[in-house]
Specification:
Layout lengths: L7 E3 L3 H23 L4 H24 L6 H4 L3 H12 L11 H23 L18 H35 L4 H7 L1 E3 L18 H21 L2
Antiparallel strand pairs: 1-2
Helix pairs in contact: 1-2, 2-5, 2-8, 5-6
The structure holds protoporphyrin IX containing FE.
Length: 232
């Protein structure tokens, strides 16, 4: 059940918020350790495994997690996206408990774009020196390793553009519509006025248990452990 007081409503559960900010820290870690290279590549690998664990967890949580975490809550068709754009450019404000239809589409793009980056990393390697080898690169031919490595090197730029757009969108909502989505992703609550029209009843949101989240996270970490071990 949603916890409410007069002016605010809880919209994001702790797992979604921890997932988000841990992902931000790990992506920054992966980026800088990858650029620096050398001894930092060890950290780059561990950070990549942690990101993969988080992504597997978030995909599972999108099916069994809290109302606003579920894909069914925020993956909407183009009609909903156009309605949202009309609200955005109009004088009124968009009102959503969870992700709006545009934000929801961006969330799916971000999750799978980061996943593509990590999976390519698993198969990447420095074929000249053989010193830095992704754990699954031993399973494929050199020409595929080269392709995976080229993709991993190129795709990071696409990720940077996507993250830039994502942050820009959050700033636009803040400055233009005075809706603080960033604060909500930190403390989990939104002003009721950002969720429903005045006089309307607050939505009834269901929050999944923390124990379920922790069990899923451990299962995802185990899957990543076996994937990494599989490469030998
Ligand atoms: C590496 C950088 C980032 C990545 C990969 C990323 C990815 C994501 C993802 C996947 C979600 C969906 C969360 C979920 O439902 O589980 C999300 C939501 C969100 N992110 Fe980020 N994020 C990044 C950086 C940031 C930063 C720096 C900010 C703030 C300045 C930010 C603000 C937000 C906000 C406000 C939402 C919720 C949007 C909404 O209400 O629909 N993100 N982000």
């Amino acid at each position: 059940m949603a916890t409410k007081n007069d002016s605010r409503i809880r919209v994001w559960d702790l797992p979604v918020r921890l997932f988000h900010w841990a992902l931000v820290i790990l992506i920054a870690t992966s980026y800088f350790s990858g650029r620096t290279g050398g001894d930092w590549m060890k950290l780059h690998f561990w950070s990549g495994y942690a990101i993969l664990t988080l992504l597997l967890f978030r995909i599972a949580w999108g099916f069994v997690g809290s109302t606003t975490a579920r894909f069914s809550d925020f993956v909407k068709g183009p009609a909903a996206a156009f309605r949202h754009i009309a609200e955005l450019v109009g004088a009124d404000r968009p009102r959503e408990a969870g992700h709006n239809p545009l934000g929801g589409a961006m969330v799916v793009v971000l999750i799978f774009a980061v996943l593509a980056q990590v999976v390519a990393g698993l198969f990447s390697a420095d074929t000249d020196t053989g010193v830095v080898t992704g754990p699954l690169s031993r399973l494929i031919a050199d020409k595929w390793i080269e392709r995976a490595t080229a993709f991993h090197t190129f795709w990071v730029n696409v990720l940077l553009v996507l993250v830039g757009l994502h942050v820009l969108a959050a700033i636009v909502y803040l400055v233009w519509k005075r809706q603080n989505l960033i604060g909500a992703m930190i403390h989990g609550h939104k002003p009721i006025d950002d969720v429903v029209r005045p006089g309307q009843a607050a939505p009834s949101l269901r929050f999944a248990s923390g124990r379920l989240a922790l069990s899923l996270l451990i299962a995802c970490a185990a899957i990543v452990y076996f994937i990494v071990r599989w490469g030998g």
